[in-house]
Amino acid sequence: MTLQLDEPAFAYFNALRQAHFPANINYLDAHLTLFHHLPNTPAVSGLLEEVAVRQSIISLEVSAVIKLGRGVAYKMQSPALTALQEYLKQQWQPWLTPQNRQGFRPHITIQNKVEVETANQLYEELAAAFSPFTAKGVGLSLWEYRGGPWHKVRDYNFRNI
Fold first, then answer.
1. How many CB atoms lie within 10 A of CB 122?
2. Is-contact 4 108, C-beta < 8 A?
3. Torsion angle defined by CA atoms of residues 27, 29, 34 and 37, in that order, rounded to the nearest 10 degrees
4. CA 99, CA 129: separation in Å to the nearest integer?
5. Within 13 Å of residue 126, how many CA atoms lie on the same side as its CB?
6. Residue-level pLDDT at 155
7. Could you report the per-residue pLDDT of 81-108, keeping only the tens digit for each?
């Protein structure tokens, strides 16, 4: 499950991802992951419907460029996003994988699985020109993994789109 970004933020991050993520393993557009694995059950989709109609658009602070070892990402900060993710995490506790039980560190990966030198070079380039800015989370997207390409199951738009 991912957070939908407003169109200007999505276009910005996706252009960076298309330019810097290895094309042979880039199965998704730029995204902010909230959960890595959830069961395909009406309880998940039902809760997402309920949450989306109550949820206002979420303000996100793009606060830093960060290193991922063999990649680069943008760190996102938002008390509202953290609260939403924590609420969903509590509701889905019995279904969560160990990866989903870890601490939530919202980010948008624009490069991964490259040589460390390549990642360091991109990090230096982006960090030198970086100034914090804001983006918006406008909904949730549920995805299904199909052995490489992902298939969008459904979008759950927040109430004031």
1. 20
2. no
3. -20
4. 32
5. 27
6. 96
7. 999 999 999 999 999 988 888 899 999 9
Long-range pairs of 75-81 with CB within 8 A, sequence gap ≥ 24: 75/105, 75/106, 75/107, 76/32, 76/106, 76/107, 76/108, 76/135, 77/106, 78/106, 78/137, 80/56, 81/3, 81/106, 81/137
The sign of the torsion formed by the CA atoms of 129, 111, 153, 61 equals: negative
Closest CA to 158 of 131, 136, 143: 136
Q: Cα torsion at 86, 92, 97, 102 (round to 10°)? A: 10
Instruction: Using alpha carbons, list the distances in angstroms from residue 139 to 3, 24, 27, 122.
Output: 6, 28, 21, 30
Q: Would the pTM of this model clear 0.90, i.e. be above it? A: yes
Structure tokens at 49: 């419907």
3-state secondary structure the chain: CEEEECHHHHHHHHHHHHHHCCHHHCCCCCCEECCCCCCCCHHHHHHHHHHHHHCCCEEEEEEEEEECCCCEEEEEECHHHHHHHHHHHHHCHHHCCHHHHCCCCCEEEEECCCCHHHHHHHHHHHHHCCCCEEEEEEEEEEEEECCCCEEEEEEEECCCC
